[in-house]
Design brief:
CATH class of the largest domain: Mainly Alpha
Order of helices and strands: HEEHHHHHHHHHHHH
Distance between the termini: 44 Å
Shape: globular
CATH topology of the largest domain: MetI-like fold
CATH superfamily of the largest domain: MetI-like
Number of domains: 2
Strand content: under 5%
Strand order of the largest sheet: 1-2
Structural class: mainly alpha
CATH architecture of the largest domain: Orthogonal Bundle
Number of helices: 13
Largest sheet: 2 strands, antiparallel
Amino acid sequence: MNTLRSQRSIIAFVIPGCVLLTLLIAWPIVQSGISALTISSNQHDNTLDSSRIFAGLSHFKTLVSQVAFWNSLALAALFTVSTTILEILIAVSVALFLYFQKTLPRIVEVLLILPMFVLPVVSGLTFRYIYDPNDGPLSFLFEALGWEPLAPLSDAVWAFWAVVLQDIWRMWPFLFLIVYAGLKALPKSSQEAARMDGANTRILITHVILPALRPTLAIAIGLKVMESLKVFTEVYVMTGGGPGDSTTLLSLFVVKQAFHFFQVGPASAASILLLALGMSLAWGITRMQNRAAALGSK
């Protein structure tokens, strides 16, 4: 009886939070869907508050005809791929080093994960100051070496990779935590058996540890891909999407269309496409994770 009453109490407390969370997630999606499929009845008012009529896929047609949209999509893809690959390589390398290195103090692990606790806006402002050609530390370093001051945020190519570098600094510790936890959870029996068979550290990593770590790596990659698709604050603070559109990722493109150019319809259509892309990738990564788990269990 007490157990049943306890379960009812838990449900009573959990349900309101679940309903509120569902509404907070579902309502913006519904609003975006409505805006993506409708158009303002007043040609001079394209806001969400205006009366709207059904427009079919006209906003999507407008969207795919814009060069800026395809540019932002390509930049988002390049940003996601480059940051995910580089960060997972750094995370795995550092996690394996700490896994085999037993003499380092535990405080090192704590210091390594500190960047992930920095707020995106603080990280963006910090790197913007570092890259400042007049007063930034990077400029002073170049002057001390006798080189011309560098202004990466003013160059279309360098600005993008400066944003990538900022993301790597802030987010690789998050992947490191996942990978390191996965390493710690691996059974020791298979590693000890490989050692007894004469396997060195390289063979142990490539043939025993990494295959067993596939499900963990799939989770880390999936979470990083989702995070990269929705990155906004730090990029907006650092560059505002510039110079030109060189750092206007898809998330920034949506905001610019909606709040800079007041094109609510195309912006909503782009956000729906971004949501569909994220859900498709999540589905694909989930399948990859399940396949990795099945391979790891064999």
